[in-house]
Specification:
Blueprint (H helix, E strand, L loop, with lengths): L13 E5 L4 H12 L3 E5 L3 H9 L12 E3 L7 H12 L6 E4 L14 H29 L3 E5 L14 H19 L5 E7 L20 H14 L3 E4 L1 H11 L3 H12 L2
Parallel strand pairs: 1-2, 1-4, 2-3, 4-5, 5-6, 6-7
Helix pairs in contact: 1-6, 3-4, 4-5
């Protein structure tokens, strides 16, 4: 039995993706649009959002645009509320995806409080502010799906993930708690835990990234997971299954194995 109502037919559905100017968010927005959804995209990069929306002119059944740019900063709570009101005016909201993210590979030798807090503000607090804007809409509807894009880096502590990993662990925990609270109300909740995806954020990495996939591959995996009604969407499985096994190990085995396999 699926954890959530399966999402398969996107024709006529309305989606809001926050963090959609590049990478996984942009690829997911494009695929959902191709499958018939009306897609609202939000991010700080207003020029990138405008280019994406301007290139997609197919209307919905009422003749309205199906690709709509709503630029905003996830740190601006009022901007998120304004965007939510614009979307609500179009009708029911079927899917909300938080995929905004900040990433810099740092360790304790390069500890910077400013960088730690920036990760927290974008990766976690931004999600909380989106929830404040979107949850009232979803609760009033009594249906819809909320998906948080986290990472396998949130499973356990990893080298050079001092700033990034804890914020992703927080998102996983948040999604679990939301599922317990919202599923009885008829709402779907999922968490997306990708491995390495070829994005502007990971391009800075100077180490080997095993099982690296494209944003388009990640987007296809996400739609497949939503279609199954899954709670956790993790991919590519040839990589994430190993990390899930590591997650189960006691610390006396986990720490030596991580050092051996990463060389860090």
């Amino acid at each position: 039995m699926p954890f959530n109502p399966p999402l398969r037919d996107w024709s006529g559905k309305t989606v809001w993706l926050v963090g959609a100017s590049s990478g996984i968010g942009a690829a997911c927005a494009s695929l959902l649009y191709e499958q018939g959804a009306t897609v609202f995209v939000s991010a700080r990069n207003s020029a990138a959002l405008a280019r994406w929306a301007d290139a997609r002119v197919a209307p919905d059944a009422q003749g309205r645009a199906r690709a709509v740019a709503l630029p905003l900063d996830v740190g601006d709570a009022e901007a998120l509320h304004r965007a939510a009101r614009v979307i609500a005016a179009r009708g029911p909201l079927d899917l909300v995806v938080y995929c905004a993210g900040h990433y810099l590979a740092i360790d304790a030798q390069d500890y910077r409080l400013e960088e730690m807090l920036k990760h927290q503000q974008v990766n976690y607090v931004g999600a909380l502010q989106l929830l404040e804007a979107a949850l009232p809409l979803l609760r009033r509807q009594g249906h819809g799906h909320l998906s948080l894009v986290s990472s396998v880096a949130g499973y356990r502590g990893l080298p050079r993930s001092l700033a990034y990993g804890p914020t992703k662990a927080a998102l996983i925990n948040l999604a679990e708690a939301l599922y317990l609270d919202l599923r009885p109300l008829g709402l779907g909740v999922s968490v997306v835990n990708p491995g390495f995806v070829q994005t502007p954020l990971t391009a800075q990495n100077d180490f080997h990234m095993p099982a690296l996939i494209t944003p388009e591959q990640a987007a296809r995996e996400m739609l497949a997971g939503w279609a199954r009604g899954a709670f956790e969407l993790h991919f590519p499985r040839r990589f994430t299954r190993w990390l899930k096994l590591l997650r189960l190990l006691p610390y006396r085995l986990y720490f030596p194995l991580v050092r051996k396999f990463t060389g860090l």
